[in-house]
Every structure is written in structure tokens, then in C-alpha cells.
Amino acid sequence: MPEYLCCYDYGTGGIWLYLEAEDTATITARYPQLIAMERAPAWWTPELEAYTRANNPADPKWQAWLANLSKDA
Q: Is 70's pLDDT higher than 90?
């Protein structure tokens, strides 16, 4: 399944993570607060990608965060 870079923009920064989904519409339908991108922005560096990929969304802390995020929609 494809992965998409996603951002939760909270105004003064953002939380970035990669999510697997059929397409970006699937992600934003489930998590309307996220911005799902087909490709990373031009300023996205290999270091940012490595850091973001190290924060695995399968981790229980991310699963709880995503579950709460979907409730806030």
C-alpha cells in the first residue's frame, strides 16, 4: 500500500508522519485535521524523512494519538 506524508498543522508548527492508505482522500476522510500529500514539499530533506519515518505510526502512542484525532473531527 502506498505511503503518504501527512501533517497536523497546529499553527506554530506541525506533527509529521507517514501513513499508508489507498490515496490521500482516504486519509483526509478518516482524519480531516491532517494534510495528506502526494509528494513531500521541496524543502523536505533526507534528514527530515529519516526522523519522520523513525516515528512509526504503528507505535501505540501514535495509535492513541490518531484515535483521538479521529474523534475530534
A: no
